[in-house]
Amino acid sequence: MNKFEQLGLSESLLKAILDLGFENPTEVQEKAIPLLLEKDTDMVALAQTGTGKTAAFGFPLIQKIDANNRNTQALILSPTRELCLQITNEIKNYSKYEKGINVVAIYGGASITEQARDIKRGAQIIVATPGRMQDMINRGLVNISQINYCILDEADEMLNMGFYEDIVNILSTSPDEKSTWLFSATMPQEVARIAKQFMHEPLEITVGAKNSGSATVSHEFYLVNARDRYEALKRLADANPDIFSVVFCRTKRDTQAVAEKLIEDGYSAAALHGDLSQAQRDGVMKSFRGRQIQMLVATDVAARGIDVDNITHVVNYQLPDEIETYNHRSGRTGRAGKLGTSIVIVTKSELRKISSIERIIKQKFEEKTIPSGIEICEIQLLHLANKIKDTEVDHEIDNYLPAINNVLEGLSKEELIKKMVSVEFNRFIAYYKKNRDISNQSSGSERRERGDSEPREFNNNGAVRYFVNIGSRDNFDWMSLKDYLKETLDLGRDDVFKVDVKEGFSFFNTDPEHTDKVMEVLNNVQLEGRRINVEISKNDGGGRRDHNGRSGGGAGRSSAPRREGSFAPRREGSGGGVGGFRSDRNSAPREGGFRSDRNSAPREGGFRSSTPRTEGGSDRAPRRSESFGDSPRPRRPRRD
Ligand code: AMP
């Protein structure tokens, strides 16, 4: 009997779960499902997004619905249209072997008549945003007087967005005897008030620590001068060729400006904010989901409800006004057990906010330095080599091989490799040579006081940096790789530092006295049948022991910028290119990049089209409803 069977789920649900490939219930599922199946009860569940809570309420709900009765029996309220559609989709997937269950999504920005028609056909489960739901109740288009179940999903988000009155009104229209299941990541007063007013002795379950960040997300900050903020963002993207990220800005204007600059510089980026029309937002989200956009630049409000799996990084280009919002931002990554990184680009004046956030998320930030030009160059080069190695050959090219062989005749393997890599790389090197290194700041005494840093004598450039052919693809993050290296090499706690994990490879530092051991031991070790290969890297990783909270306090900052250590390639690309190398504007998109459409002719300006500019009159104060196509009433003014 598998673990799902033990929860008491029906055959048809178990079959759907098998199709979905869920092997084991998540913590919230394990806790909530048996309780909800056993009896009709109210429940308050504290769980972050990405913990599997849709199934935690979805499975028992489907099992309890009477498929032979066409009346509306359950209402699920969720904060945004995006989320509403996702839940609807999930419920449809879960109930695919359950005959006769109808789920309808209702949300603003779409035809109310059509939605009313769908409901009239018989919808046992309605998934709705509160604004549109209230609207439909007022117009008599929906009847929830018979519902047995009401689910408030992401209750804190809904209240944050000003839906309090709508929720109260909706709940007041529904029968007292129903069961209410409330899911929320946090428990602010307003949520507690709703629970108190509308729920009867709710069972409480908590997943993970209250208000804590997800254990699968690691948090990093980069201290920079305010003028270098954008440059820092670009370098972070360059140092992570596989980045698939949401970049948060505070205002719509900044969001648009950063996205436009990124696109101009050849990155595959797009803006998402409330001044865009619904159709524009849909287009952006479609491209993001399809991974044609690597960097989605968004406001907090517009990014609510983004539920895209496998986001590798959340970038806080600017910290939010309210630090609680940080939790919501970082929760976009590290979902469904995957590892993710939340990056903060911070200036000295904002540094104290980092400590406040650490208290809220109950996790420490790691202070890091913006990678130098030479480090980025090495990462990109190795990424390219990996990409070449992993590329599957389409045998269509076999026909052309004789001709190609003719052209390349006489070149040795070595020469051929060098030339192939140089095709992509020469331009890149040329770019970075021209540009200055950006000035990394150090949090200095502020962080050292908290015992996070080491004394300055560690602040040396004498460390040896290594490249090793294992990375996140082998399920390592910097912490687990550091542990693995320490154990394998039998080294002490602080002997391995500056561990940087990329997809197919990683870097780390040791002091020179360990070099022989590292080379000898690691080059003779196998990981799951694969030989580990370690080499000494040309770059020194910034020379600082700044990983793992061991900041050296600004090493190298006083020294003259190294010639090779400074670049910010201007990617005049189509958004294509192998793993972050963008091709020239007029060249064809290359294999492996993030392109909008593989089959079409190359387009000017790459992803320009995926970042719709704001239409005329953008100075006017936009109505909040424009962000969602719904009509929440804002309770707290936000800078969006
Ligand atoms: P949620 O918290 O409901 O938004 O779920 C986050 C993601 O986890 C979704 O993509 C779900 O499909 C996935 N998921 C939910 N339950 C499980 C499970 N038991 N095993 C694996 N993935 C799951």
Automatic annotation (TrEMBL):
Pfam families per UniProt: DbpA, DEAD, Helicase_C
Keyword Nucleotide-binding appears in the UniProt entry: yes
Molecular function GO terms recorded: helicase activity
Disordered: annotated span: 534-640
Domain Helicase ATP-binding residue range list: 34-205
Motif (Q motif): 2-30
Keywords: ATP-binding, Helicase, Hydrolase, Nucleotide-binding
Domain DEAD-box RNA helicase Q intervals: 2-30
Top enzyme category: hydrolase
Ranges of compositional bias, category Basic and acidic residues: 534-549, 561-573, 582-601, 616-627
Helicase C-terminal domain: residues covered: 225-378
SUPFAM superfamilies: P-loop containing nucleoside triphosphate hydrolases (SSF52540), RNA-binding domain, RBD (SSF54928)
Top-level lineage group: Bacteria
Family classification: Belongs to the DEAD box helicase family.
PANTHER family: ATP-DEPENDENT RNA HELICASE DEAD, DEAD-BOX ATP-DEPENDENT RNA HELICASE 47, MITOCHONDRIAL
The protein's name: RNA helicase
Classification lineage: Bacteria, Pseudomonadati, Bacteroidota, Flavobacteriia, Flavobacteriales
